[in-house]
Specification:
Layout lengths: L1 H17 L4 H11 L4 H22 L1 H9 L21 H6 L14 E5 L7 E5 L1 H16 L9 E5 L8 H14 L1 E5 L8 H11 L3 E5 H14 L8 E5 L5 H11 L3 E7 L3 E5 L7 E3 L4 E6 L10 E8 L10 E9 L14 E5 L7 E2 L5 E2 L3 H6 L5 E10 L2 E8 L4 H16 L4 E6 L14 E3 L8
Parallel strand pairs: 3-4, 3-5, 5-6, 6-7, 16-19, 17-18
Antiparallel strand pairs: 1-2, 7-8, 8-9, 9-13, 10-11, 11-12, 12-13, 14-15, 16-17
Helix pairs in contact: 2-6, 3-4, 9-10
Length: 455
Amino acid sequence: MAVEWIGKHVYPIYEAHLRGRKTFEYVAEYEANQQLSSDELHALQLAKLKRLLAHCEAQVPFYQRHWAMADVSSRDLREVADLRHFPTIDKGMIRANQADMVASSWQGRTMRKSTGGSTGQPFSFEYTRESYERRMAVMMRGYGWAGWRQGERRLDIWGTEIAPTSALRRWKMQLHDRVLGRRVLSCFTMTQDNLPQYVRVIDDYRPKVIVGYTSALVELARWIERHQGARWAPHSVITAAEMLTQDQRTLLERAFRAPVFHTYGCREFMLIGAECEHHNGYHTSADHLVVELTDDAGVPVASGSGHVTITDLHNEGMPFVRYLNGDLGRTSDHAGACACGRALPLLGAVEGRSLDVLTSPDGRIIPGEFFPHLMKDQPAVEAFQVRQTSEDRLKVLLVGEGGHSEAIQQRLRTSIEKQTGPQLRVDFEWVDEIPLTPSGKRRVTVREIERPPVR
């Protein structure tokens, strides 16, 4: 009961009074917003969008130039659909125009985050404190659709920091997790031999929900099925960071004896959409983001597949307007309102991320998400792909400043071998570009060999 009490009562006090954050005010706001009608949500989104575009035009040098070249102005936006006339941006543009993308009134006051990129294109970006607080609130709302409420036990099987951290930082992270009311297990230390330890934690901790990388949870589920454990069944399982196939969903629900709720997000915005109890796709946060699917010319598609294009309505520090995050999405087949009663629009599916699980000869499990975590701290690497060509060999393709290749390769080799062990040889190759799949996806990790049997 202590864990629940701390998470339910201490964490809101910690956020509001010790950190001065409005997270729970925004939770209440977003919870109320999901009761709005489609027309009310549209009006709210339009008002936020108009305010954002006017701010960009007045304070962001990049958008002043970018929109002038396209002969568009914030005054041209009368409906949300008018956003189609504004040009899209991508990671390359952000890397090339980083300083000019920060609003003049926010210079020196933003927070910074790096991302390894689910599409293998690392870069850094900036955001405001309000934006962070709102992202946390949107995440809490989305997890609530899976039956979780703040204060209930949550077990995260997630990626942890790869770079060495100080004892003080580790203590702060542990304190934050305890106050939040969750426990975190690193999926970057998973091996075939220590999977029983993860199951024991589930049985001992008895979480209301389990949250984790799809690939890590699938590996754990395969072990549970083979060895007939675990004893504890959570209320639900929330998968994230990687795509979820129907076969994987079936396996997870069978092994954990709980329904699976898949979420979609990226580091630039955190949660973009989440499944409700009817599993008809992802309810997108129209009160927080504008989510479009566009063709190669930036025109929204009426049906079928398109590039996921995001406008963040609350990051005034470094605004993202019509940002192509590198994923491919598909429109929803469900016409009209969802049976859950929420008017938040549905995104049918996301097709853009393929992160194969890699393995080492000594049984270590390497989730594909390890490599974006690693590459986010390598600004000279513009794009990458990791291929497992044999049981004992990885080939890492790199795009970027090859003149510094030896120093970069040595840093990467040290970090990778720490994760994979010395039996997995790592080779590097600097290339001009990373090939896309026939469907237009960029694979981050590619496993070219058969999976080893589960022990």
